[in-house]
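Action item from last meeting closed. Structure (288 res):
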């Protein structure tokens, strides 16, 4: 068996074309175009690249982007003040604070200060907690992108055995909750899990987000499984790789996502989706 490779870039392009139509529809109704404020604190090169890519994606879709580049020495109070100002700005529908932040910044306080209805990253406690009850305003972008990939491939989630490797607050835990909400049976594995293979071998759908290059090898995967590789790792030679031995596992899986070009493009695409949805809600409230 050779796995079918999921083209995340192609799906992202199709979705972004649809999103551009939604943006034009908002403007045709006389509503403000969706606005996304991206806050970058400090001069981390990788963060700067991520922010630049997000701004380009916004521009290509018709979303107005506002980039706030703040010094790494900024105080906690100053950063919170900027967020409060953006909360009150009706032209801003989404607020994203690029991580990581300098050590003097209280990250939980930052996340809870962003207004729930503008938390397009889905990291506010309300949105995270809402995943448990199915009432979240915004789902975190990376797990949301994985769900969109599965749906686009017409893969059944209901009743499937799903194993999520990695228990982070950003990917692993919300991923498990979102798949449970779709009636999958989910197990979460992490760094302390003993004999990881005994779990991964049971997975109909295996989602790997551990940040360990080549962690999942063929003998750990059931024949015919769907393998979603969320990991992004830079090797010493500069090559980008995932958490899955792609060449080996592709010989056993029925479907697999590559790195790069799989889940990555979908993460930014879901950020656009959440921002547009926020603008649509704001427009609906004004029409009442």
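Sequence:
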């Amino acid at each position: 068996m050779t796995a079918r490779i999921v083209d995340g870039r192609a799906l992202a392009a199709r979705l972004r074309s649809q999103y551009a139509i939604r943006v034009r529809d908002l403007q045709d109704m006389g509503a403000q175009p969706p606005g996304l404020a991206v806050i970058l604190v400090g001069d981390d090169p990788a963060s700067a690249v991520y922010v630049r890519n997000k701004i380009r994606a916004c521009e290509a879709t018709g979303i107005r982007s506002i980039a706030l580049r703040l010094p790494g020495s900024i105080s906690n109070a100053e950063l919170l003040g900027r967020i409060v100002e953006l909360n009150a700005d009706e032209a801003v529908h989404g607020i994203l604070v690029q991580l990581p932040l300098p050590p003097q910044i209280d990250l939980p306080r930052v996340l809870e200060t962003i207004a729930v209805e503008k938390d397009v990253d889905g990291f506010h406690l309300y949105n995270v907690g809402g995943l448990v009850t199915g009432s979240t305003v915004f789902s975190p972008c990376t797990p949301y992108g994985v769900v969109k990939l599965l749906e686009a491939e017409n893969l059944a989630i209901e009743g499937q055995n799903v194993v999520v490797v990695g228990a982070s607050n950003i990917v692993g835990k919300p991923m498990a909750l979102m798949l449970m909400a779709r009636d999958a049976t989910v197990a979460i594995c992490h760094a302390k899990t003993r004999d990881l293979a005994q779990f991964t071998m049971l997975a109909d759908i295996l989602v790997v987000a551990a940040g360990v290059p080549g962690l999942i090898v063929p003998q750990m995967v059931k024949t015919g499984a769907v393998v979603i590789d969320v990991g992004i790792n830079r090797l010493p030679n500069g090559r980008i790789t995932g958490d899955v031995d792609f060449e080996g596992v592709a010989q056993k899986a029925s479907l697999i996502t590559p790195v790069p070009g799989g889940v990555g493009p979908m993460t930014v695409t879901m950020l656009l989706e959440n921002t547009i949805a926020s603008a649509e809600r704001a427009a609906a409230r004004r029409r009442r």
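Note appended to the action item: The mean pLDDT is 96.
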